[in-house]
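Need residues for this backbone.
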């Protein structure tokens, strides 16, 4: 049967339909929709731990990364009955949003078949809580390089963030954004509130801006970011999402938001080569085979 036609398949006992497997979603490399689906099926073993039970926002590229994309939060009407979903109250006082919730490999494959190249999840999970959004599981620092900087400068900022944290490097876990920047995750214990976590992240960002004014900015205004790295503390909000670990990105190549080690951050900061921390899907699968899930402690 032609790959352009819908094909019924079974993934871990779940039946679903995939289609247009030969459709090129990354024109510069020829990476196809079938390869996107195959990547998510293969990476599911480690990725699921980082998206499971978290309301999913899909960034869909139906005609490839060089065409328009859209974000989808509501679970589509045509979703299989076995796709989990959860109604979450709207922060704008509108109707609740019925999000899909990834719980297994078949759901990852189903979403990938929708040309959902990117998977974005919040810093909280559904669990058995009756009141949503739930308290945060992590504090995150999203390091976004301004014009004239790259992931190299983000590595320098990551190092000073770790120095000021009580948890230090041993309690702070880095990953690439898969695009230009880095993200640092700090797992939380006890009963943190969003307000306390957000205030703490903001305070750290402001302190580092004062200590390293030529390198760090905490203000979101783009006019202030040239030659500096924004520490985006505002991500610590129940309505915000961050690209999930192991998610593909809608860049020219099928790059991935990849967990990395502090040794790799030190190396990139020393060499000054952004390519040190640029990982495509095939390299990520090789890393998992060799290193396991570097984000497992998160």
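Answer:
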């Amino acid at each position: 049967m032609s790959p352009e036609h819908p094909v019924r398949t079974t993934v871990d006992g779940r039946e679903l339909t995939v289609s247009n497997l030969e459709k090129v979603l990354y024109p510069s490399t020829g990476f196809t929709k079938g390869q996107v689906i195959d990547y998510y099926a293969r990476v599911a073993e480690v990725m699921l731990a980082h998206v499971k039970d978290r309301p999913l926002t899909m960034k869909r590229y139906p005609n490839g990364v060089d065409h328009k994309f859209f974000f989808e939060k509501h679970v589509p009407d045509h979703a299989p009955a076995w796709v989990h979903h959860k109604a979450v109250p709207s922060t704008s006082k509108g109707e609740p949003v019925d999000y899909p919730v990834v719980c297994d490999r078949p759901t990852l494959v189903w979403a990938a078949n929708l040309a959902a190249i990117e998977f974005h999840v919040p810093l909280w999970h559904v669990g058995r809580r009756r009141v949503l959004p739930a308290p945060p599981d992590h504090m995150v620092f999203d390091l976004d390089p301004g014009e004239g900087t790259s992931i190299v400068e983000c590595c320098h900022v990551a190092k000073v963030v770790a120095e000021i944290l009580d948890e230090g490097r041993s309690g702070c876990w880095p990953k690439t954004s898969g695009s230009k920047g880095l993200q640092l995750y700090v797992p939380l214990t006890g009963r943190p509130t969003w307000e306390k976590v957000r205030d703490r992240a903001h305070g750290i960002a402001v302190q580092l801006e004062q200590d390293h004014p030529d390198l760090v900015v905490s203000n979101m205004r783009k006019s202030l970011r040239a030659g500096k790295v924004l520490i985006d503390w505002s991500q610590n909000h129940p309505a915000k999402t961050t690209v999930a670990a192991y998610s593909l990105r809608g860049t020219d190549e099928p790059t991935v938001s990849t967990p990395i080690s502090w040794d790799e951050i030190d190396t990139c900061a020393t060499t000054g080569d952004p390519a040190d921390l640029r990982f495509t899907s095939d390299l990520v699968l090789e890393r998992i085979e060799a290193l396991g899930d570097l984000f497992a402690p998160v």
